[in-house]
Specification:
Two copies of one chain form a homodimer. The first copy, chain A, is mainly alpha-helical. Chain A has one domain: Arc Repressor Mutant, subunit A (Orthogonal Bundle). In chain A, 53% of the residues lie in helices and 4% in strands. Chain A contains seven helices and two strands. In chain A, a hairpin with a 5-residue loop joins strand 1 and strand 2. The longest helix of chain A is centred in the first third of the chain and has 18 residues. At the A-B interface, helix 1, helix 6 and helix 7 of A face helix 1, helix 6 and helix 7 of B. Bound molecules: FE2/S2 (inorganic) cluster (2 copies). One FE2/S2 (inorganic) cluster binds next to helix 6 of chain A. The structure holds a DNA duplex.
DNA sequence: TCATAAAAGGATATTTTTGTCTTTTTTTAA
DNA sequence: TTAAAAAAAGACAAAAATATCCTTTTATGA
């Protein structure tokens, strides 16, 4: 459905939002561990999110990543289009170069509604909302997030 | 959404079904042209469909690909799982190793319904039905399928 | 000032996907 | 029986995605 990079970006963003809600800035290393992303890859993904203005980054000792309130209000849709391309939710399921009701593929009317519903769902889901799911409902960002608490 | 191979497989299968409905066996070359798939790649994809029993293939002069009535009744879902793996419609959108209501990710309840709807839709859509769309409603399997008629 | 911690950036490596080419096998029909 | 046409099979090539490593820049605080 989504590329690894995109999945990683969503998991990482939600984790950073969660931390920011708790007033905590986080380093790549912690994000990577908390979300089960290879650390070096997480670094790349976060760079990209930072360049796109979806997260703030601060270099140097005591640096790390954080999200302001307004950044937390951005939608998961923005992350997906950043990593999958703007066209993602307008592309033909059968891979035809354009998707349109004028020239539909045989699956067009079957799936176009579902595709739009997914798009809307992601547009309406803020990063903050997803982070709240983690805090309030115990939703996971890695297989055994319980492991975090051990020390 | 789907890999190229999977998109190609669906387009090719629908085209072969259409031809078989017209009582015509088709060669890779024609399938490739009619569906805008690189010919050599189409050959690989069709081999795989044939090994899976979703299409019949006949070697030699006057050979080619065809689909029996029962093959035409197979669903597009079968093609997708063949190329994307059985787990495709049960996988976590955020890439977690398992998707379950027990251990949901923060998007689980948002998307699980849509994912299941897509699954059902593909399960209920036979290859024949998609081919009928092409014949009856003029649905496309390549950008300008009108070009076929020129000679 | 200097050691340390952290992100940024760049180069490289690995794996997967996509795509191509060549040879072999099978079938048909002249 | 032989030439031609077609799929099957295998090897190879190119591109993209994923992953890792190393160096540079920036900030902090001792
Ligand atoms: S044309 Fe294929 S999904 Fe719209
Ligand atoms: S757990 Fe992520 S979609 Fe079900």
């Amino acid at each position: 459905m989504f590329s690894k990079a995109c999945e990683y970006a969503m998991r990482a963003a939600v984790y950073i939002a969660k931390c920011s809600m708790e007033g905590k800035r986080v380093a790549v290393k912690e994000v990577a561990e908390a979300t089960d992303i290879p650390e070096a890859f997480a670094s790349k993904v976060l760079q990209r999110l930072a360049r796109a203005g979806l997260v703030d980054s601060l270099r140097g000792k005591k640096g790390g990543f954080s999200m302001s309130a307004s950044q937390q209000k951005r939608s998961l849709y923005e992350i997906v289009t950043l990593f999958e391309g703007e066209a993602y939710f307008n592309s033909c399921v059968l891979g035809l170069p354009v998707c349109s009701s004028q020239n539909p593929c045989p699956l067009h009317y079957q799936v176009v509604g579902l595709r739009d519903a997914l798009k809307k769902s992601l547009q309406q889901t803020t990063i903050r909302k997803a982070a709240t799911e983690v805090v309030d409902a115990g939703a996971r960002l890695r297989f055994s997030s319980e492991d975090d608490e051990s020390h």
